[in-house]
User: Fold this.
Amino acid sequence: MRRADRLFEIIQILRRVRRPVSAQAIADELEVSKRSVYRDIATLTAQRVPIRGEAGVGYVLEDGFDMPPLMLTAEEIDAAVLGALWVSTRAEPELARAAENLLAKIEAITPEPLRRHIEGTAMSVRPVAAASEDLVDAAMLRQAILDGRKISLGYRDQNGRESERIVWPILLGYRDEGRILAAWCELRDGFRYFRTDRMTFARRLEERYPETPAALKKRWRAAMDAERERYAAADQPLRPR
Assistant:
């Protein structure tokens, strides 16, 4: 790997994570020595890249750093194309169009030798049946998640029973079969999942829920981890005494 490429990769590694990264971890990923990492970090800081390092802790890229113009490797282009292909066939029309626009923008800035990764991609995604049409605005759900706003929604369960809920939205999950909203449900006083194709209406409320989106998501992940552990324990075979 050329040194210029290695300097760029170090910045990418630091941008990718939110915690300090040790010189050894960087060296392992780039397959170089720690001494090379120390020299590269010194070069970057001399070029005014805002990297802060603490002995025994690691390196952190501080906020406010602007990356140079977009430069993608062949593998990164393949990853973007595969993701855009999936979104264009599984997401709502607005996101599907955005995925197509993304591919067009990437193609416009991609050097000619790499453009075949887009024009003649070697990948595809499995076709799926058209999902049932939703009555709710997925873009509104995503914005409410980002803003930490409550949502009022009507829901019809698998038996046709209808109810109205106030929920704290956490995550909108995209699957082959459709979309699912993970949320804290005030009616059930717990975390629940709601299929968007079973929502009869959804309205974003001005009221915020009483914690940050990051704190709510952390609490949800802890609950999901605990639930997975319970399922795993139940599936374990009985051990002979």
